[in-house]
Structure to design on (789 residues):
């Protein structure tokens, strides 16, 4: 983000400042309420076009200065001396002057980028030590290392740019620096060629009209730079490349640069004695002034409506994202190109607008830099994963107030300490020291909050059955796994639970954030790709890795197919252990985000249509003819009615779709079909928030959920399952394992360890508790099989 200097600020007019506010606060709303303001992420498109415009204006001014200086030398009547006769040729002078200009230009911009980046990193470190746990601080180390190198955009290449990642639910306060990294990369790569292009003068055009070089410059910008970058953006191999790589964003910067070239044409050098009389300047009519201002504010208002209206009034255009991005960038470029110059000529800036623009021109950029860290730390302070409407407005006020205060502090510092060479050298030494400190922190090994001595003192109580006593073992993955398995039995729970201290509970809950942390590496079986072939996915498809397939051989005769979304991938090991190998094969297929009960599911998750997923399941059933089918999945809210809508199940289209699918599936399954009931859905990431609240010694009861609320939220799903006509179907409810006395527990009450890794997925401890349900299902199948024999 480039600040608006006092020398060039009046040239831009109020257009840039207003568009910056629209773009920045659109991003703020998106990061606070990502699902409600899904289009707000495109505010970064406005900022990229504005950045290209500001850079273009400054480069045009640099080229104008050289032309004016050359013109002054040509108009001078001083006789040349011997020293002047031996000077370098004109092209060498121009090259030396260009190198000097671009060097000073780089020094000024890099000083701003590096200093703002370091201040943000140091501030994030202070907030992290106050609010983050060790695992979040370890992740912050990696983010700092990428931010110091201005490579955050490349760090996110292998990450899905989803609402959950970009939103503030993830405790990563520096992820928004990907935009700053892209801007700096554009600045370093394209400033010299753009400066050369703006200085373009040739003898060929000396006797041509002055707009001939102007046309050449615009054509070169468009054909040589804008078009290739736009094609790369459209043909990018992945969404992360299209969002974060410089080549995919260059066309937006250059669109702003073209707007600057059109709005601010190069001035024709005139002799010093030539002046333009005030009477020769035509003043615009009052009607044109009013019309231009009304048109400008109307277009800007329409641009803001796209971002600021919530999704209930203006749904996100994710399926038309490319078209919306092009439209937003084009409208921004049009406003910059046409109205920047016109508004300045029609209505000179008033004293108030000039004061606001000169003294608050950097406020939107400071607000952009501070908004994500402040929102992340505010959420960590409240120990919530999502902000309510009231909390969100408080966060916006906090961001605005802090940005205003920081802006005033910088104005005061620049007023008290004007830039001088001696102070600049001290500033450079301070930057080097801060960079060295942040770099050493990022690469330093070990835990931050706990010293190494305290780390070695952490121990896990394990009951040794051979010696009939409790032993303390170092805190490792195998020892914690053994401890979790033992506390699931009543014999050991009361004896081992009191032996855990606060630090050990925090550490174990941090480990429970991943559902697969405690799984053994040598899982029996092998991966498969049969389902991928059934739905005709190409082998080089970038989404194929999202589909999880595993086949496991057993000692019995049953054929078991387990199908679902990510919940099936979490629970299949407990299903396999419940059958104790009494199957011929057990095949697992997990397609994230899809519910295998609806053929009319219109959603596309990770590039896979859910309707095609269900069709692929039917094909696999027809091919394998399993004895048992487990459907384990999360019941999403897509097929939930609105709050005041009443559904007649006799005419319910969704129930009809479920019934139609089950009629097909029953014919393809030999014995039983087990369908999971609606799973528990909590309001926050349980394991992370539980560890944080234990560390901060805050109440934990708010993490649990009333059983009646769970039933009310999923009433329509339970009713549809109850009306489903399926002789081979049995419904099992894992929520019953965690709900007693009217409360659905998110964690084990005695040990304060999480049953859930996030809002709905079972942790390893939760899987151990749910294993009892699968054992009952396996026992019922085995008993019926014995009766038939």
């Amino acid at each position: 983000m480039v600040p608006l200097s006092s020398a060039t600020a009046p040239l831009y007019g109020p257009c840039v400042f207003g568009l910056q506010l629209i773009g920045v606060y659109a991003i703020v709303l998106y990061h606070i309420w990502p699902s409600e303001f899904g289009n707000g992420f495109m505010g970064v498109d406005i900022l990229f076009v504005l950045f290209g415009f500001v850079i273009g204006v400054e480069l045009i001014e640099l080229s104008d200065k050289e032309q004016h200086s050359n013109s002054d030398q040509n108009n001078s009547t001083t006789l040349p001396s011997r020293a002047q006769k031996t000077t370098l040729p004109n092209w060498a002078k121009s090259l030396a002057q260009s190198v000097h200009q671009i060097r000073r230009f780089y020094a000024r911009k890099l000083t701003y980028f590096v200093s703002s980046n370091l201040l943000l990193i140091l501030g994030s470190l202070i907030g992290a030590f106050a609010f983050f746990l060790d695992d979040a601080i370890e992740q912050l180390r990696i983010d700092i290392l990428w931010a110091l190198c201005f490579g955050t955009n490349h760090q996110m290449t292998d990450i899905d740019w989803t609402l959950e990642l970009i939103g503030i639910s993830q405790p990563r306060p520096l992820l928004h620096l990907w935009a700053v990294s892209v801007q700096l990369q554009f600045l370093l790569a394209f400033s010299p060629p753009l400066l050369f292009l703006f200085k373009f003068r040739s003898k060929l055009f000396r006797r041509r009209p002055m707009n001939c070089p102007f046309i050449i410059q615009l054509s070169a910008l468009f054909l040589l730079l804008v078009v290739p970058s736009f094609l790369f953006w459209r043909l990018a191999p992945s969404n992360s490349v299209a969002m974060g790589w410089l080549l995919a964003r260059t066309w937006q910067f250059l669109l702003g640069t073209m707007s600057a070239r059109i709005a601010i044409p190069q001035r024709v050098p005139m002799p010093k004695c030539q002046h333009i009389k005030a009477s020769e300047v035509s003043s615009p009519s009052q009607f044109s002034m009013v019309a231009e201002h009304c048109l400008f504010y109307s277009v800007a208002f329409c641009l803001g409506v796209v971002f600021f209206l919530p999704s209930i009034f203006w749904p996100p255009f994710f399926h038309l994202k490319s078209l919306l991005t092009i439209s937003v960038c084009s409208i921004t470029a049009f406003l910059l190109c046409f109205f920047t110059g016109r508004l300045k000529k029609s209505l000179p800036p008033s004293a108030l607008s000039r004061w606001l623009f000169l003294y608050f021109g950097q406020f939107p950029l400071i607000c952009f830099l501070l908004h994500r860290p402040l929102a992340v730390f505010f959420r960590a302070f409240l120990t919530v994963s999502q902000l309510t409407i009231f909390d969100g407005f408080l966060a916006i006020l906090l961001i605005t107030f802090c940005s205003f205060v920081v802006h005033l502090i910088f104005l005061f510092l620049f007023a008290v300490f004007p830039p001088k060479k001696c102070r600049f050298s001290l500033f450079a030494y301070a930057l080097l020291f801060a960079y060295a400190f942040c770099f050493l922190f990022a690469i330093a090994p070990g835990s931050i909050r706990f010293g190494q001595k305290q780390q070695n003192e952490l121990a896990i109580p394990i009951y040794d059955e051979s010696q009939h006593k409790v032993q303390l073992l170092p805190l490792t993955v195998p020892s914690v796994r053994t401890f979790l398995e033992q506390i699931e039995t009543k014999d050991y729970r009361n004896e081992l639970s009191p032996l855990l201290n606060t630090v050990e509970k925090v550490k174990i809950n941090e480990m429970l954030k991943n559902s697969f942390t405690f799984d053994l590496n040598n899982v029996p079986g092998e991966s498969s790709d049969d389902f991928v072939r059934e739905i005709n996915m190409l082998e080089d498809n970038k989404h194929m890795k999202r589909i999880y397939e595993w086949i496991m051989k057993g000692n019995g005769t049953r054929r078991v197919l387990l199908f679902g979304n990510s919940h099936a991938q979490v629970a299949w090991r407990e299903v396999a252990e419940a059958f104790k190998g009494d199957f011929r094969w057990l095949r697992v297929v997990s397609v994230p985000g899809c519910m295998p009960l609806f053929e009319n599911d219109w959603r596309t998750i990770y590039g896979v249509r859910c309707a095609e997923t269900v069709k692929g399941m039917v094909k696999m059933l027809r091919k394998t003819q399993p004895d048992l089918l487990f459907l384990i999945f999360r019941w999403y809210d897509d097929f939930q009615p609105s709050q005041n809508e009443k559904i007649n199940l006799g005419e319910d289209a969704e129930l009809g779709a479920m019934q139609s699918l089950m009629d097909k599936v029953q014919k393809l399954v030999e014995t039983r079909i087990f369908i999971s009931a609606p799973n528990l859905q909590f309001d926050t990431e349980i394991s992370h928030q539980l560890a944080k609240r234990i560390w901060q010694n805050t109440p934990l009861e708010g993490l649990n959920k009333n059983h009646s609320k769970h039933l009310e939220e999923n009433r329509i799903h339970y009713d549809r399952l109850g009306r489903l006509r399926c002789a081979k179907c049995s419904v099992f409810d894992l929520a019953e394992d965690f709900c007693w006395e009217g409360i659905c527990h998110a964690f084990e009450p005695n040990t304060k360890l999480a049953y859930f890794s996030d809002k709905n997925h079972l942790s390893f401890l939760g899987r151990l508790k749910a294993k009892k349900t699968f054992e009952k299902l396996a026992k019922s199948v085995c008993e019926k099989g014995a009766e038939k024999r």
